[in-house]
Specification:
By secondary structure, this protein is an alpha+beta fold. It folds into two domains: 91 residues, no CATH class; 109 residues, no CATH class. It contains eight helices and five strands.
Length: 221
């Protein structure tokens, strides 16, 4: 094996294949998270990275980068609707694309932190607007140093909440009858419906230990 460049490594891990393994069994045969062909490529990557680690070819940092890159790469061909709570009934066009291993791009989080630090010195307020759930975005908001009490927009703007206090400033909810209507008109044999429930407990208490955000997801199909 003669891998001199990142491109050589990406090409090698995109082509390597294994026809047996837990990834294939659990996430292709039993559950349709990946096509069989893509699962075989992913299994090949998993086994190869493990073997390199066993042989001492990789440093801890290199091993971590390869694993993170693999996760990002197979997410691009996952048969899901954005989350891994469930897979789609039929293979969607994203899942039918051939798997390609791609190394993570140069980290930008450090650059973002430095930029935020500069903006804060100028007393510029920083917030987050995301399509993620509160707990899906919480770790990143902590990393970015979002101030407690700063309004943050979640669920693509469907909920605006004060970060760290759980006070809801705005929420656009779908009525229960709207959910029932969708369940009646959508063909659940071919599609999935995800309903996210967002609420808070004791939002206005001064005791931070009693403040919390509750999130649940229900799936049909």
């Amino acid at each position: 094996m003669n891998l001199k460049t990142d491109s050589d490594l990406e090409k090698y891990l995109s082509q390597i294949i294994n026809y047996e393994g837990w990834m294939i069994s659990e996430y292709s045969r039993k559950r349709q998270f990946f096509t069989y062909e893509n699962a075989c490529h992913i299994q090949g990557c998993i086994d190869n990275i493990k073997q390199w680690e066993k042989e001492g070819v990789l440093t801890d940092k290199e091993n971590a980068i390869l694993i993170a890159s693999l996760i990002q790469s197979f997410d691009n061909v996952a048969n899901t609707a954005g989350t891994y709570y469930a897979y789609l009934k039929e293979y969607y066009r994203k899942a039918k694309r051939p798997f390609k291993f791609k190394l993570l791009e140069a980290p930008v989080l450090g650059q973002i932190r430095r930029l935020i630090a500069k903006l804060k010195k100028k007393h510029t307020q920083i917030t987050v607007v995301t399509g993620r759930t509160y707990y899906g975005a919480k770790a990143r908001m902590q990393e970015l140093g979002i101030d407690v009490g700063m309004p943050v927009a979640l669920y693509n703007g469907g909920v605006v909440v004060e970060y760290g206090t759980s006070n809801i400033l705005y929420a656009s909810y779908i009525p229960n009858m709207g959910v029932r209507f969708m369940l009646n008109v959508v063909d659940l044999e071919k599609s999935n419906i995800y309903v996210y429930v967002f609420s808070t407990c004791s939002p206005f208490t001064t005791d931070s230990e009693k403040r919390c955000v509750k999130e649940e997801v229900y799936v049909w199909g």
